[in-house]
């Protein structure tokens, strides 16, 4: 019923990994036989490491979002160009058909005019 895209899964997995790492790190520090000062230093170091990792992951996600946005913009431009070409081709074909019909009507009118004069 509910389907996750690969990106959603990767983001969720990454978030779970980070949270799990924090919980495991804090638990290990709290149960390790260290002095309070040592423990606070270790917690501060681990917090710094975690902040750096979060920053890296944020930059990675930002880059992925920019790349996806650029791909979407490129596809939209390509679709627009194709539609524009189709409209231009259709307009040229319609103009050609109109000119053919106009010439045919003109020829028919001249033929009728000539036949009425006779």
TrEMBL record:
The chain crosses the membrane at residues 12-32. Residues 42-118 are annotated as: Disordered. Coiled coil: none annotated. Pfam families: YtxH (PF12732). It comes from the Bacteria. Keywords: Membrane, Transmembrane, Transmembrane helix. Residues 52-118 have a biased composition (Basic and acidic residues). This is YtxH domain-containing protein. It comes from Dolosigranulum pigrum. The lineage of its organism: Bacteria, Bacillati, Bacillota, Bacilli, Lactobacillales.
């Amino acid at each position: 019923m509910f389907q996750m895209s690969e990106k959603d899964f990767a983001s969720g997995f990454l978030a779970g990994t980070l949270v799990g790492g924090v919980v495991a790190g804090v638990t290990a520090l709290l149960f390790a036989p260290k002095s309070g000062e040592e423990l606070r230093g270790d917690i501060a170091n681990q917090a710094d490491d975690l902040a750096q990792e979060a920053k890296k992951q944020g930059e990675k996600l930002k880059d992925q979002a920019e790349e996806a946005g650029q791909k979407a913009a490129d596809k939209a431009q390509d679709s627009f160009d194709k539609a524009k070409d189709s409209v231009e081709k259709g307009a040229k074909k319609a103009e050609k058909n109109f000119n053919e019909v106009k010439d045919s009507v003109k020829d028919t009118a001249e033929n009728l005019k000539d036949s009425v004069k006779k």
